[in-house]
């Protein structure tokens, strides 16, 4: 009888590695989207176009970023996309975050 443990172990590793790569790609895409959003908010807030923000422009930038962050968080929590967050969706989001924080850093 053939020992299948190495094959099972290798299969498990490939599946795990595939998930890790998918996760890394998703994180890279998310970072790219955040950077694009930040750049767009900066450009919108820079009313005089001098590539620098005055105190008032910076306040507008901060408000835009907070609104975009709130929209993004809402979308993450609203899993079914019905524009309503149920108690179950909220608890699930908290659980995902607790699980994410327990993972060792890469």
Estimated structural class: mainly alpha
Strand content: under 5%
Low-confidence segments = 7-22
Tally the beta strands: 0
Q: Output the number of helix runs.
A: 3
Average of per-residue pLDDT values:
79
Count of separate structural domains = 1
Task: Provide the succession of SSEs.
Answer: HHH
Please give the largest β-sheet. Answer: none
- Termini separation (Å)? 39 Å
Radius of gyration from CA coordinates: 21 Å
- Helix fraction by DSSP (H/I, runs of at least 4): over 70%
Instruction: Categorize the overall geometry.
Output: elongated
Give a structural overview:
This protein is mainly α. The protein has one domain (5-102). Helices cover 75% and strands 0% of the residues. It is built from 3 helices and no strands. The chain starts with a helix and ends with a helix.
Question: Would you summarize the structure shown here?
Answer:
The chain is mainly α and 106 residues long. The protein has helices at 5-45, 55-77, 87-102.
What descriptive keywords fit this protein?
106 residues; mainly alpha; 3 helices
Can you lay out the helices and strands and say which pair or pack?
Layout: H1 5-45, H2 55-77, H3 87-102
């Amino acid at each position: 009888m053939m020992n299948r443990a190495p094959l099972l172990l290798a299969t498990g590793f490939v599946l795990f590695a595939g998930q890790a790569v998918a996760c890394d790609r998703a994180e890279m895409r998310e970072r790219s989207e955040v950077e694009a959003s930040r750049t767009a908010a900066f450009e919108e807030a820079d009313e005089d176009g001098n590539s620098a923000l005055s105190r008032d422009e910076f306040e507008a930038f901060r408000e835009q970023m907070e609104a975009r962050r709130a929209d993004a968080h809402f979308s993450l929590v609203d899993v079914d996309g019905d524009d309503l967050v149920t108690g179950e969706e909220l608890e699930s989001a908290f659980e995902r975050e607790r699980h994410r924080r327990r993972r060792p850093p890469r």
